[in-house]
Amino acid sequence: MRLTQGLQRAVQFRPRQTATVFRGRTRTWSEFGQRVRRGAGALRERAVSAGDRVVVIAANSDDYAELLYAVAWAGGVGVPLNTRWSVRELADAVADSRPRVIAVDESFADIVAELVVGLAEAPAVLGLGLAEVGESWSAAVESGTGCSESERSDDDLALICYTGGTTGSAKGVMLSHRNLVSCSLMWISTLRFDEQTRYLHSPGFFHMAGAAPLFALTLAAGTHVIVPKFDAADVLNTIETERVNYCLFVPTMITMLMNHEDFAHRDLSSVRDIEYGASPMPEALLRRVMHELPEWRLVQGYGCTEATALVTALPQRYHVLDGPWSGKLQTAGRAAAGVEVRIVDPDGIELPRGEVGEIAVRGPVVMLGYWDKPAETTAALRAGWLHTGDGARMDDEGFVTIVDRLKDMIVSGGENIYSGEVEQAIHTDTRVAECAVIGIPDEHWGEAVHAVVVPRTGADLTGNEVIAHCHTLIAGYKCPRSVEIRAEPLPLTGAGKIMKPALRAPFWTTSATR
């Protein structure tokens, strides 16, 4: 299995059909394929060889999509980084991945020098879009002579996607060619991609919710309609003008679209399928979508980066309020084609149906491991199974209901936020004695980051100061949106751990969790 197989297929089957649409610019599959080959040649001229990393920090674009394929064609490893991270977080990931090349767009051109400080070998720099830094990617492609396709395939590393860690440092999830091709086949089978699909890319390519459909739709030879990032007005306009028929949204995006002043005035009749996921969908919003947009065929997807994005899916037929299938609406669906899913106890033993345990996954989409983190890899991959850290139960028909996040992960607006990372930032303020970070219900974001802080004796500390302090250390979306300052110690278990369920309980007693 090679990631570039899908590209070759699309070029062979639909050479004159549209591959990408970006800001009014269209490229056919033949053009896309030629640019990938020339871009791969340019990367090899910059010393990218088998296994070398290429970091990308940029908003979505057609050039970004081509670059990811060019990296694979050249035999390299793509490392797309979160554009919402702070400079410090980006620099940490660059230092960890040790890239041969860094590609940035105009939004990040002025921080390149900060990102490479301390590297033993300075990477080459490529400018995407309008970035006036290093060498122009477009110029490199136009002048490139092309090269033969790399022989890397199967379990060779193809992509490193960083995901937050409870230790406070991001972990690089290593995904192979087999992982990415297997996931693409699962998307085509489970989510009905085909050559007539005109798919809107609004989630960032740095996220598997953005990268996975890029690879899958290429294998299906559909059309990529790309916007730089999610903006409600831009998305509504793009759907109408480009006749988009398939979208992936997190619930927050759907809320923004439906509440936008232009929503009722835009022609969205082209939309056929909507996948949603990445964070809990409030039932009230789900019912509103089903009522106001009954022509949308909804499918829910649950997954994680370590499983190359997709684990379970809830098809359209279960998005009903009445009848024999109506009781499945609040589940995350059943195992997607190609993976096995179990609910297990701490020893990895499968639990009886209905009992709550940890979601474990096995199949060709399970990651190779964490980049340069053998201990974390051993903890996550046991006896051939990926232990996700998500708590759930399974009914007697295989439907999975997620009930908690065992790793204390907070999902806000589709972004994974790890409480341990935020707590570490808060604890760097010397006035803090104790703190706990939890997710609380939020009508707009699904969940919001909330911190409970106990100051040191005699210290004067406000919630606004805690939030401001976090903004100097971590990305804004990870920072607490609310803070409770309390005098009494935080509740502890018999083992001395903070009892986060007790802190969450007042907020979630009247709200559904997933």
Model description:
With 514 residues, this protein is α/β, with parallel strands linked by helices. The protein contains 15 helices and 27 strands. Helix 2 packs across helix 3.
SSE order and pairing:
Blueprint: H1 4-13, E1 18-22, E2 25-28, H2 29-45, E3 53-57, H3 62-74, E4 77-80, H4 87-97, E5 101-104, H5 112-115, E6 124-127, E7 135-136, H6 137-143, E8 157-163, E9 171-176, H7 177-191, E10 198-201, H8 208-220, E11 223-226, H9 232-242, E12 246-249, H10 251-259, E13 273-277, H11 283-292, E14 297-302, E15 312-314, E16 334-335, E17 340-344, E18 357-362, E19 369-370, H12 374-380, E20 381-382, E21 385-394, E22 400-405, E23 409-412, E24 415-418, H13 419-427, E25 432-442, E26 446-455, H14 463-471, E27 482-485, H15 500-508
Parallel strand pairs: 1-11, 3-4, 3-5, 5-6, 6-7, 10-11, 10-12, 12-13, 13-14, 26-27
Antiparallel strand pairs: 1-2, 8-9, 9-19, 14-15, 15-16, 17-18, 18-21, 20-21, 21-22, 23-24, 25-26
List keywords for this structure.
514 residues, alpha/beta, 5-stranded parallel β-sheet, 26% strand
In short:
The chain has 514 residues and is an alpha/beta fold. The strands form 6 sheets. A 9-stranded mixed β-sheet has the order 2-1-11-10-12-13-14-15-16, sandwiched between helices. It has a 5-stranded parallel β-sheet with strand order 4-3-5-6-7. Strands 17, 18, 20, 21 and 22 form a 5-stranded antiparallel β-sheet that branches.
